[in-house]
Amino acid sequence: MNRKKKLLFVLVVISGLLSALLLSGCDGLLFNDDIGSSNNQSSQSSESSRSTETEAEQQAHSSDSSSDSPEEPVVAPLVVVPEILVPTAPGNNVEKNGQAVVDYSNRQDGYIMAKYTENTNMKIKLLITVPDGVQYTYSLIPGRDFEVFPLSGGDGKYEIGVFKQVEGTRYSMVLSTNINVSLVDEFAPFLRPNQFVNFTQDSVAVRKAAELTAGISDVMEKVAAIYDFVISNIVYDVELAETVQSDYLPEIDRILESGKGICFDYSSLMAAMLRSQSVPTKLVIGYTGDVYHAWISVYSEEDGWLDNVIFFDGQTWSLVDPTFAAGGSSGALAQFIGDGENYTVRFLH
Questions:
Q1: Alpha helices (H) along 234-291
Q2: Ordered DSSP codes for 110-159
Q3: Fold observed for domain 196-348
Q4: pLDDT per residue over 61-71, tens digit each?
Q5: Which of 27, 154, 170, 183 has the fewest C-beta atoms lying within 10 Å of its C-beta?
Q6: DSSP code of 188?
Q7: Max CA pair span of the chain
Q8: Secondary structure class of 209 (helix, strand, coil)
């Protein structure tokens, strides 16, 4: 496979290069000049030129005239929005009480669904402890329908608890259960929507992903097309970054409409678009140095999970960080990201 053809652009982590991408995007329009009879200045000169025209010239003119036929129209690739993997809560395996419900019927597909049913003004947290002991904390909004939460720690025993705020940072447990998970597909948690990577069949971002990848079958060409779009069309939202709350959740279609977002938004949007195209994609949350940050990791059969480096060197992809690329030559963002060796993974969603 031709890697140069497959990877459509070179991501180089140097000052200035990617900022030029943000200024580009104008599509050129081609105009065909009409060929008229301006060679003949008057009927008299026309008659004169006819009398002196050679037979070869007449044949040439005849040939020019016959070649002035309309060009064949360019047919764009057919845009097909694929069927996404829709999480469900069938109620086959459930832990519940009068306050909360946890449906783990589809744990083999890498997710559970949960909701809080009691009316309250207190904060509600869902805590998932994965097999290696890492604890994932999510927010549950009382009164909402089921939300999706990934089982991203692979096979093994998971501890699940729902907690209600008592005061400040004090919480009491209202529901708990332990489940054993054996995934039917190791990529299952990273192909479906969840609370952090939330999309549906009707999402505008899903349609845009289908448009960007129409006619493309190669995984890394899909990654390149979507990556290029995101870093070229979404700008960093400095104001949001300064005011964002701990329970903030990305809304991918709002991000597209506003054209701006923080690192969490960039990563959620790109993960959703790629997952809708059946590309296994992790939304990764961790640290760059001592700064909390989010980025993504995508899976390629040739390279496995792409991580550890933040640029494409012309041969291989690694650790896809759309926030950095969109920032381009920004000195603040370059310092924020570091040299790539400072990335520390905490959570996978």
A1: 238-243, 252-258, 263-275
A2: TEEEEEE-S--SS-EEEEEE-TTS-EEEEEE-TT---EEEE-TT-SEEEE
A3: C8orf32 fold (3.10.620)
A4: 444 544 455 66
A5: 27
A6: G
A7: 104
A8: helix
